[in-house]
Specification:
By secondary structure, the chain is of the alpha/beta class. The chain is built from 9 helices and 7 strands. About 50% of the residues are buried.
Length: about 325
């Protein structure tokens, strides 16, 4: 199975036509790409976030907005609908789900891609030396927001069998057995994996599926800025960070979610921790450049395992 837009021919039915999706946290990065790829597969996609053309969130990146994401979804072939929402505010999430129900009468795909805490993160600092308010804010952004959204949205998702819940995180269950170098980040990125596992049990008998999904070394807008490169010259950053050679664009994880959503047998993944590179091997999709990066395999084997293999062997 493939969901790559470049492999479709004119007139080919889109695999997600009639599907209604909510990508919570779709302002930028993986969330934006997931929304766009769901749209490319024909879905109607509600995109939420805190940065709009009239309001900038604490992340402080004013040029990346939910309105732009919605426009990109529509340009890709779906229908993008931007709804400003702070997912730590239950009343705002309730209003969002009420709107989706009133306008569509269904919800088929829920993607919890909520985060926005990188600006709070300091690696190599002991838990007790970390600013407590910053640490607790990371837990709110990475855990509480997911719980609020699932609690309110799942009654609509489970109304019809076949629903898909994707808990986005950083790291696989296997990799996150390693300490993620910051107490609060470790909790924030391990919790969605356990959420998917627990929700898989709660979803038994509904015909719905819950999974955790991680990209690899993601070339998000923020990451490219940190290295001073653009998507068209990203390999220049490898001089500073050699492991960046296995990085992937956000398109890759977007195609992973679209492939999951289009798979009638997606229930086989219920409760599991998945990665973009893992799913690429199963579904046959590629990154935007035609490669199939396996960043977590590279980190397991080479970075931590000591294997003498080039990054290109994992592309």
């Amino acid at each position: 199975m493939t969901t790559n837009a470049q492999h479709k021919t004119p007139g080919t039915p889109k695999p997600l036509s009639g599907t209604v999706a909510l990508v919570a946290g779709a302002t930028r990065g993986g969330g934006r790409a997931i929304a766009v790829q769901l749209g490319a597969a024909g879905a109607t996609v509600y995109v939420t976030g805190r940065t709009t053309r009239t309001h900038v969130s604490e992340v402080g990146r004013p040029t990346e907005t939910i309105e732009e994401t919605a426009e990109l979804v529509t340009e890709a072939g779906g229908e993008g609908i931007a709804v400003p929402a702070d997912h730590l505010q239950p009343d705002q999430v309730r209003a969002l789900i009420t709107r989706i129900d009133a306008e569509q009468g269904r919800l088929d795909v829920l993607v919890n891609s909520l985060w926005g805490g990188d600006h709070l993160l300091e690696f190599g600092v002991k838990m007790w030396d970390t600013d407590l308010e910053k640490g607790l804010r990371m837990l709110d952004l990475g855990i509480r927001s997911h719980a609020v959204t699932s609690s309110i949205a799942l009654p609509l998702l489970i109304r019809r069998p076949g629903g898909l819940l994707v808990e986005m995180t950083d790291g696989t269950a296997e990799y996150n057995q390693r300490f993620r170098e910051n107490f609060y980040y470790d909790l924030a990125k391990t919790a969605p994996i356990r959420m998917a596992f627990a929700l898989a049990h709660d979803l038994e008998g509904t015909g719905c599926t819950a999974v955790a999904l991680t990209p690899g070394f993601l070339r998000s807008e923020e990451m490219l800025d940190a290295f001073g490169v653009r998507e068209d010259d990203w390999r220049d950053a490898c001089a500073k960070e050699p492991h960046f050679a296995v990085a992937e664009s956000p398109v890759y994880v977007g195609r992973a979610v679209a492939a999951l959503a289009a798979d009638p047998d997606r229930g086989r993944w219920n409760g599991q921790s998945l990665s973009s590179g893992q799913l690429a091997k199963v579904y046959g999709f590629t990154d935007a450049d035609g490669s199939q990066p396996d960043a977590w395999g590279y980190f397991r084997d080479v970075v931590h395992g000591g294997a003498d293999r080039p990054a290109e062997a994992y592309r």
